[in-house]
Write a structure and sequence with these properties.
By secondary structure, the protein is mostly helical. It has four helices and no strands. Helices cover about 75% and strands about 0% of the residues. It comes from Sparus aurata (Gilthead sea bream).
Length: about 110
């Protein structure tokens, strides 16, 4: 989960926590609430930077796509031979591996 909006347009958990801290600070304007907002914002920025550097969010998305694709193939081909299944799984895993490898040269931002 990155800092962007989820697919439905709602806030991520990190965004909600940040907005709650901002609302609290805006209502009180105390140094303690300002520090809490700074910490929450810093954590969110740090997490987003780590995700961009490691590409873990994208790797997880590719993994989900690979698994779902294999599942869909199995549902659509219930009588496929073991050799056909092995070929399809190998093909999809190779695509997954190539996509992950491509992340190594992708720009961070």
């Amino acid at each position: 989960m990155s800092g962007s909006l989820s697919s439905g347009g709602e806030m991520t958990n990190a965004q909600l926590i940040q907005q709650m801290a901002l609302l609290r600070w805006l209502g009180s304007d105390t140094d303690e609430d300002r520090r809490m907002l700074a910490v929450v914002t810093g954590l969110q920025v740090g997490r987003e930077l780590l995700n961009r550097i490691t590409g873990q969010d994208q790797v997880d998305a590719y993994k989900r796509e690979c698994i779902l694709g294999i599942s869909q193939f199995l549902r659509e081909n219930p009588r496929a031979s073991q050799a056909t299944i092995n070929t399809e799984v190998e093909k999809r895993v190779l695509v997954f591996a190539a996509r992950v490898k491509a992340l190594e040269t992708a720009p961070l931002f």
